[in-house]
Each structure stands twice: as C-alpha cells, then as structure tokens.
Amino acid sequence: MQWTKLSERSVYENRWFQVNLADVELPDGRHLDHYLIRLRPVAVATAVNDADEVLMLWRHRFITDSWGWELAAGVVEDGEDIEAAAAREMEEETGWRPGPLRHLLTVEPSNGLSDARHHLYWAERATYTGPPEDAFESSRRAWVPLKQVPDMIGRGEIPAANMAAGLLMLHHLRLG
C-alpha cells in the first residue's frame, strides 16, 4: 500500500533544514496533512587501527540531555563529495586524517518524518595531524576496542541509532 504525495510546501527553512507540509493521499482515498523535515546528507567517518580499536568521540547531546560515544559526523556542504565530507569531518573533529575510506552503509534514521540520509565510511588507518579543529564537538576522543561495541550499545553508551548500526556493521566486518 503506497501513500501518494499530491503537493508539498515549505513552512520554515534555514541553512540546516527545511520543514514542509505535504498533502498526502492514503490508499483508501483519504487525505492527510503530513509534516516532514528535509535535511542535507550527513557524512560519518572513523578508522580502525591494527589493534582493532575504533576512533570515537565522547560527547553530550543537549537535545536529549545524554552522553554517549559517537563517530565524527557532519553535514555535506553544497557541491561537496560525500566521501570527502566524511574525511573532512573526521579530521576536524578528531585530529586524525583517515586513510582511504570505504563505504560502510547508508541509513535513514527517521524516514517517517525526514529524508535524512547518513552515509558512514571507515578506514583501516589514520594519521594524527594535531589537535582537532572542532574540539568543542566532544569532551574527548579515544581509540575504543571494537570487541566492546556490542556491550556498549547494550548498556546505552552508544545511543545514536546511526552510530550503533555502523559500529555493529564494522564489528561484523572486522571481527566476524
């Protein structure tokens, strides 16, 4: 059963997102007003070292008032290649420049409300370039044993669904 969008108009927008109102026709012919959020793509990157440790950030999210481990991430700028954005974000937020990036997965974290797509990448090596340019993004950066990731997710230490999905995929790829 497919819903059909008949029209869509913007009700608010800024450089980060746009809130739209759509007229949607349901399969039975009824109509409903559906709000949706249009977002820029998000690029995410990390690296795994020879000891099977993954580069992560410990940060606070004021919206949910929660602390958790995450991967370096940010919006893709207009005209920017997604993979290049992932590498840029990783270096800006961690001070580590990734080696060649590999696509890990793309997720839609809230596809009932937004068109957000998060593109996750990883590298098998990284080079330290100095203190992070965007140190305000996290309280600390650390190489965390990948084998600990499933238990960390279970304890709620990795609360963001996109990060949990990517880290579980990385755990599977590297450790089986």
Brief write-up:
This protein has helices at 82-94, 149-154, 161-175, and strands at residues 4-13, 17-25, 31-39, 42-47, 53-61, 66-70, 72-75, 96-98, 102-107, 118-123, 126-128, 140-145. By secondary structure, it is an alpha+beta fold. Residues 38-171 form the Nudix hydrolase domain.
Descriptive account of the structure:
It comes from Streptomyces wedmorensis. Residues 38-171 form the Nudix hydrolase domain. Keywords: Hydrolase. Belongs to the Nudix hydrolase family. By secondary structure, this protein is of the alpha+beta class. Helices cover 19% and strands 43% of the residues. It is built from 3 helices and 12 strands; from the N terminus they run βββββββαβββββαα. The protein has helices at residues 82-94, 149-154, 161-175; strands at 4-13, 17-25, 31-39, 42-47, 53-61, 66-70, 72-75, 96-98, 102-107, 118-123, 126-128, 140-145. The strands form 4 sheets. It has a 4-stranded mixed sheet with strand order 7-4-10-9. A 3-stranded antiparallel sheet has the order 1-2-3, with no helix packed on it. Strands 6-5-12 form a 3-stranded antiparallel sheet, with no helix packed on it. It is elongated and about 55 Å long. The N and C termini lie far apart (37 Å). The model has no long low-confidence stretch (mean pLDDT 96).
Helix content: 10-25%
Q: Main β-sheet: number of strands, strand sense, barrel status?
A: 4 strands, mixed
Numbering strands along the chain, what is their spatial order in the largest sheet? 7-4-10-9
Q: Averaging pLDDT over every residue, what do you get?
A: 96
Rounded to an integer in angstroms, the radius of gyration calculated over CA atoms is 18 Å
GO molecular function: hydrolase activity
Domain Nudix hydrolase: 38-171
Cofactor: Mg(2+)
Protein name: NUDIX hydrolase
